[in-house]
Structures are given as structure tokens and as C-alpha cells.
Prior knowledge:
about 65% helix, 3-stranded mixed β-sheet, homodimer, mainly alpha, Neurolysin, domain 3
Amino acid sequence: MNCPGYKKLSERSREVHLVRSTASLLEWDLETYIPPNAAAFRAEQLSYLGTKAHALFTKPIVGHWIKEAEDFGFPAESLEAANVREWRRTYDRAVKIPNSLVEKFEKARILAYDAWIGARAESNFPKFRPHLEKIITLVRKKIDRWGFEESPYDALLEDYEPGIRASQLKPVFAELRDALKDILAKASASGVSEEFLDGHYPISGQQALSKEIAEAFGYDFRSGRIDTTTHPFMTTLGPYDQRITTRYNEKRFEMSLYGTMHETGHALYEQGLPKEPVGVPTSDSVSLGIHESQSRLWENHVGRTTQFWHLWHATACNYLPDLARYSPDDLARGVQRVAPSFIRVEADEVTYDLHVLLRFEIELELIEGRLKVKDLPEAWNSKFKELFDLKVPDDRRGVLQDVHWSHGTFGYSPTYTLGNLNAAQLINAAETQVPDLGAQLARGRYQPLLQWLREKVHQHGRHYLPQDLMCRATGETTQGKYRIEYLRQKYAT
Amino acid sequence: MNCPGYKKLSERSREVHLVRSTASLLEWDLETYIPPNAAAFRAEQLSYLGTKAHALFTKPIVGHWIKEAEDFGFPAESLEAANVREWRRTYDRAVKIPNSLVEKFEKARILAYDAWIGARAESNFPKFRPHLEKIITLVRKKIDRWGFEESPYDALLEDYEPGIRASQLKPVFAELRDALKDILAKASASGVSEEFLDGHYPISGQQALSKEIAEAFGYDFRSGRIDTTTHPFMTTLGPYDQRITTRYNEKRFEMSLYGTMHETGHALYEQGLPKEPVGVPTSDSVSLGIHESQSRLWENHVGRTTQFWHLWHATACNYLPDLARYSPDDLARGVQRVAPSFIRVEADEVTYDLHVLLRFEIELELIEGRLKVKDLPEAWNSKFKELFDLKVPDDRRGVLQDVHWSHGTFGYSPTYTLGNLNAAQLINAAETQVPDLGAQLARGRYQPLLQWLREKVHQHGRHYLPQDLMCRATGETTQGKYRIEYLRQKYAT
């Protein structure tokens, strides 16, 4: 089918991808190897490429091509139709925000981030407050431009989880909330101490073990590598270039090991996306909730299990001799420790979603105008008490802990829990569809699971909207019950 | 002084620099850390940015701005006048070559490079010959577009050594040629064996030693780093980002040690260039002959000396215990070994320039039409016999050894020798101008020498043409006598 507008859009997408993937290398280097004095000029390079990429896809001609491709009428289920749908969505969202608002937002973000750094260090919320107020005012202006049907929060979710609405999340999250409080009460009673697995684990041994496990999961090192950064991440720098980073603690091997499994999950998704055509939406990942499902699935459902340690115990002891003090069951108990704590990024499997639900509720109230920034610390602390039965000692370990809001990012947090829910639902479906999956995983045969994920999730890129993809893979939209059942069996029996 | 065209040119130069420095990071990563499967897409990213940078500075509006800046009439010695001169020079050279010829040349280069790889492996010149003929035909077409006054070779030199002419090089090189043959005869008699310093030198020890020496020379690691590559190089990725690469041989510490000193010399030059305004010619290095003078000066005049080893012996033995078998004088003798050999990149200080002179004479004959490609191997071998009194065993170790011609690069090779000549002349001038320079260097006080180079060479960027810069620093244009005298004293007494 020959539609010139479609062809032009494909070429432009490839061009935008060349620019964005180059910017991703600038960022990767900024986090890994850049000399300290070089950071300021790097910011200039990044801002230049960011502006170029934005301009390339917001020119009026792009709108004409999209109209032409829409009028051409590709069959509803075709890849082409999906690409046109996604081009329309992202183009409209981008051009609806005038440059003056984009610039105001960028400036406010930079100031808010600086203020947040200082405020968190001093545990001084009033210092951050005026910046957060400014950010929220500007976010509301963006929402006014974008428009919404039910909740203004929906306009924000659209950036991270296309098609989902707050009204769909609420009942699922409410069900989860009640179940988690119950599971937590049973799980945290039978715990081991935080220091249970502490020992001396040389970094070179941790590196070799992580590498062997990532490879066993199916990560292709010919198209990737693992480096060290303060904040671990996965980034894609081209169709055959998915890089992982991790961080090491010589006393605690879990940090790098489970961090690497997590990022490996993200990388396996990206390595399984369509390689051609480069840069079009259907060759891209579909949403954060699906992306996070892949990382959580490999990290927790595959890696944070008793059977994993029965399989990997000997290898792990070989690389990290201090581990020989523990039986496989000890190791499993250690990495499955459950204990309520103040900081989200240090949370265990059971309490993690409680941290997220708290943020979701607060963001919703802030954006819907039911909560004022000045009342935020109090709202945070009282919700925290309710969910965790803990009194937040200071704002540093409370409302000021996350970077997201200072970056102007709202609507992102629920995707963490969506990822957890999707992971449980996907592995449940895989268990019914892949013969002998449990036995395969117990023997370290990870290929059948990866193959299933490739077929049901990875290869589709952005062809279907996330909830449509979940239906096709599992027969249902995202549900709470699979995760609840998984956590109940693992932690509350 | 307010000239709008000049302001526009400065902004455009900054923009081009943002793109080019980003491309340099893509290249640096390609040589250091890129996963193997990612190289193909990387080539696409590089080609995209290269095309963008070229287009940014060859638009007709740029020509108008240059005209406007010329008409404005900046004072002759001003930085502004120098920038306008350089913008004019590079703009005219770029726009004189039509895009069709650029594309033909690019295609021919890619094919020629592939053919050269195969031809060299098989030592099969006829396989390379038609490609080289094609390259030379296209190079001549470029020369016709550029124009020249004396020799067509001058039009090629202009890319690497602005303002120099073959007629200026010839007498200097002839003097050098005669002297070198004489010095070689005396030097190679008193040599040590090639394996004299062989031992076991762990890479971590080599790294630590190289790092300490680079730092002592004045290399700022807050604006740089050292990584490992097959072919060592120095690259600048921003005003405060000068990165070095090197390679290690566990049997021979000299490879990485002197390689690092060499690249450190290049990096010290770039770290001493004006930081602002970013991207304009006067903030850039002036020529390859000056650049190479800085690398050779630190590598050979500072590092490849007896006094260097008296100073560094203890430290070096600390990092590389196997070195304790040698006295400082032994080490100096080892790194000052002179022996004619077939391969330029492995050559010692005395024979290195003979390799270069051979290439210069052959390139001149090829470009001036006095030598045909089909007669090239014979010409190479007979000149080699004349200069080195050695019979070239095969073309792999003869005419096929260098990559340059397959890349379409002619006029580059003489800058290696210019660098050597400039290095000797600069250090000679420094000795007369810096109090007690020899004693300072002997005690490891490298700051006075670096300060002198900063003042006389680095800080001027491209303000003066290379030969003008040499005159201001040393009172003369590039001469042969300083290098001849240096080599005679070091190797033939």
C-alpha cells in the first residue's frame, strides 16, 4: 500500500530516532564515564539534541502527513494503522503545548530540582513548597491544553500508560490495598534480620555472577553490556544496543544481583522489540506498566524464589565464597525478607505497592485540587501511618524522598504497581500456556518463558494499547487478584 | 564591535561544535565500549550527524555572513579577523566541492578501505590498485575545484597544515634526509636487542604508572580519562573533556607508557586551548604539525630520556616490580633503541622520519602525475632500499602497510615530520627562555615547560597560521637543524 504521507512519517520517525538515540548515548556517558568538569557542556549538547528532536516531529508538515495517512485508511488491525494512531496521539499532545509553556516548565523544573536537593538534605519542606506549587500550576495549564474526559489526572497518565484512566485504576488499587495490609500483617512476623545475609562479597565476584545470570535469562551481550552507576538503569542506544547499569555494595550482594535481574528484564523486552522499521511506534515499547512488568517478572517471579537459589547456589558460592555459610533456603529467606520501612526504593515485594498507592492517592488529590501543597506533609504522614502503622520521623524520609515531583512528573508512580500486577498476571498466563513452565524454570531453562514473552508481549511493540495487549496475552485487562494470590502464597502461608 | 554577521557566525560555529563533539562521543564509544552488534546503527548515527554539521556551515547564508564580517573590517591582528579568515578558508573549501563529488568520494573510500583490508592481509597490491587509481582520480578532481598556485599537492596540505607549501617542505626535508642517514649509521651500531626490556608487566601496574606520569606532566583528569582501544588516540568531546586511549602489552610496558605520554601531549594542547567562545576557530587547534609537536615533545624530549628514568625509576619499579632488574641507564638505553624496520608505527626516533619522507616523496609524485599507481610497489621498494638499505619482503610490510590512502588521505603524512621538527625547535626555544629548564625537568617540575607551551602555543588556538605561530614562539619558521642537532646529540655521539 503506497501512501506518501505514511512513507514520510516513517522516514521522519527514523530521523527522530537517530537524534534521540544519540542523546541517549550522551546521557549514558554522563552517568558512566564522563569526567567531572565535562558535565556542563554535556547539558548543552543534550538540550540542543532534545530541541532538534522535538522540532523535527512538531513541524506543521508532520500534521499534514498524519492527516494524509489517516485519510488513506489503513485496515484497522494493521501495523500501519497502529503507527498512524500513535503518531496522531504524540503529535497532538506535543503541538497542543505552546513553546512558551514548554520553556516556563523547563525553567520551573530546573529550579524545583535544585530546591528539592537542598530541601531533602535539610528535611525542610517549606523550602520546596513554592516550587512544587509553581510546578502544579504549570502541570494544570498543560492539562487544560490537552483536555480530559473524566479526571484531569487521566491527561497525565497518557504519557506513561496510553489509554488508561484513573477510574480504572481505583477499584483495582483498592482491592490490592486491603489485601496487602492483610498479607503484610502475616508476612512481617516471620522475618529474618536486615543484616541476615551481610558478608564480604568482592565486586569482581558479584559482576561475574550477575553476568552469568543475565546471560542465562537470555540477555544478549553482543547487543549490550553492564556498567556501574549511582542509579541503575537500562537504556537503548540503537536496535542492537541495550545497556544495563548497576551498583555494588561489597557487604550486600543483593543490591547488584537483583538490580541486574531487574534491568535485565527491561533489556530483554527491548531486545525482543521489532528491529525494523527503526524508530516507528510499533518498534517501540508500549508503556511503563508493561515495561515494568518485564523487569519485575524476572527479578521477583523468577529470581526472588526458593527454586532459584536451589539452582544457583553452587555457582553463586563459587563466585562469592562467603555465601557458602547459607543454605539455598536461607538465601531465599534472606532475599524474601518483608519489613515495613520509610523509603520506597528500599521496599520489599509486599510493601512496595503500599508506597505506590500512597503516591497515587496523593497525586490524584493534588491534581484534582482536593489537596493543597501546604497540607502535603500532613497528608503524607497520616496516610503513611494508616498504611504502614509507622510514624514518619521527618520529611526527608517522607514526602521529600522521591525526585519525581521536582522533575514535574505526575502520573508516573502508578505504573510501578501496574507493572507488578501485569507481571503476576502474565506469569500466571504463561503457567497455563507453557508446558511444564515451573519445572523448566527450576532447571534453569529460561528460554520457554522468554519465548512466550517474546510472542505475547515483546514482538508487538506498540501495535496494541497496553490494556489490549494484556487482554490478548492473558484474556483480561490488568487485575489485582493474580498479584494478591502470588503474594499470599509466597508470603502469607 | 558590533557586526551582526560575525555574531551569527559565532553562534553557528557553536552549533556546529555541539554536533561535531556529539559525533566525537559516538566515535569514542565505538572504539571503547560499544557492543559488537551495535556498530552498524552507529555508522548511521555518525553519517547523520556528519551530514548535518556539513550542511550547517555550507548554507549560502553562511557565505553572506562571512562577506559581511569581511566588509566590517576587523583590525588585522584581532581574534575576530583570524576567525573571519578561517571561516572564509573552510567555507570556500567546502562549497567548492559539489555534493555529487562528495558522495562519489565517500563511496570510493568505503570500497577502497574494504579492498585495502583484504589486499594487505594477502599482501596483494593488484587487488587494491584499481581502488587507489579511482581515489587519486577523485582527489585530482577535488584539487581542480580548490585550485593551487605551485603544486597540486599544496591544495591537499591545506587541510592539515594551513598555509604551508610543498616547496617549503622540500629543502627542509632534504636536509633532514641526509642527516638522518648519517645519524642512523652511527646509532644503530650501539644498540640493544629488541627483547632487552621484555618482562612481565601486569596491566594494572602499567595503568597506575601511566596515570601518575600523565598527571605529573599536567594532564587534568577532572577533564579527561584513559581507556583502552586497539588504536590509541586522543579526542576532545567538549571544552573540558579531553580523553586519551591506550593499549597494553603485558610483555612490553613501553607500548602503553610511551603511547600515553604521546596522547597526553595532544591532550595538554587541547586542555590549554581557549575555552570561550566555544566552537570558533581561535578556540581550536591550529594544525596537525603543531598538534604532533606537542605529543612528540612530551613523549620523546621529556619522556624518552636518561634523566626521565633517573627520576621515575623508583616509582616505576614500585608499580612494575620486574623493572627492578634494570638500572635507570638500562631503561633509557632500552627505550632509545635504534634499528631500521619495515613498519612506520613501530619505528624509533631516528628512522621514523625516514618512513615519513618516503611517503611524502611518493605522494608528491603520485599527485603531480609523475608516478603511476601501477608502478607504486616498485617505487616504494626502491626508495626503501635507498633510505634504509633493506629489501622490502612483501607489500604487506611495504606499500600496503598504512591505512591513509585507502581513506583518500593525501598530504597528511608530512605533518608527522613537521611535528618532530617543531617539537625540537620549540624545546630548543624553551631552553633559552625558561630559566633552568633542564634542571627543572630533571627534578620532575614539568609546570614551567607546560606554562611556556601554554603561553607560546596553546592559548593562541588558531589565531595565527602555523608558521606564523612558530616564528612568534621560536623566531623562525620550521627548520631541520634543531631536530638534526637533537638526534645527533642523543643518538650519534
